[in-house]
Amino acid sequence: MSQTSGQGGLFSQPAALAAGAAGVGSALLALWAMRGMPLGGLLMWLSPLPVFAAGFGFGARAAVSAVGIAAVLVLLSTSSLGLLVYLAVFGLPAAMIVATAMQPGRMDLTLPLALLGLWPVVVLAVLALAIPDLEAEMRSAVELGMRRMGVSLPDGMVDQIAQVKAAAAGFWVALLMVGNGLAAQALLARKALAIHRTPPADALHLPGWYLLLPAIALAAWLAFGGAVALSSLLILLVPVFLLGVVGVHRRLRGRAGRVAFLAGFYVLMLLFLQIMAPLMVGVGLLDQYRRPSMPPQT
Prior knowledge:
35% of the residues are buried. It is built from 14 helices and 2 strands. The protein has helices spanning 2-11, 14-34, 40-43, 48-58, 60-77, 80-101, 110-130, 134-149, 155-190, 212-224, 227-236, 238-251, 258-271, 273-290, and strands spanning 102-103, 106-107. The chain has a two-stranded antiparallel ribbon with strand order 1-2. The longest helix is centred in the middle third of the chain and has 36 residues, at 155-190. With 298 residues, the protein is an all-alpha fold. Helices cover 77% and strands 1% of the residues. β1 (102-103) and β2 form a beta hairpin.
């Protein structure tokens, strides 16, 4: 009798089970790479997926609990450095995105979109405070990477790459969160397990205060220069860039040849990102100002 009630108590809390499974899964995916296991470099990027799945299927508390469980496992299996890497790159941004997206009765992606720019800048600021000459360290990292690949670059080009190295990392983290979040929500929706429906593209926008941040970063870069200010500016523009990409998809909705056009669009993005990125930022700014300040209630 006691065994039956104990089992009933356990299985009557699916959110707790989901959080535990997601935490273990997320930790295993991260540790697979940290331990140098085969395909670890690929599986590591799926580490936020279980956290998103737990959160979008069982609520923000499940996502936060999953990150806590995964953090304990990573710490026990690696070191404090491994824990910090897991939390900064995978765990905390995923949990915060879920926590800000899950609103009463609906999913709202306004703050999560802003977090794609805010969180990497926070991490960059912490690194800048912790490392006295972060720019020199980034330049050394670029030189080391070039030597390992057997590539020799002029000093000027090395400096240019070092200037935007942190921005590239922030851009990759943003894409990582977007990809895993969309995959988790799509999988849950297909199985009818998602708590909320995915908001329409027309509802996607940034908070009104957000655009002040890139302006401040631009002023800081013009006044003081440096890799940290430039990377902060570029990272803060990533959500605006993503808003522009969504705008392209929305404008092609229901049009003939949509798939072919989008295929060409992404080829151009890969080949000419330096040109396409400013264009997408411009489209994102246009869409931000052309829409109402509040998303439609669903």
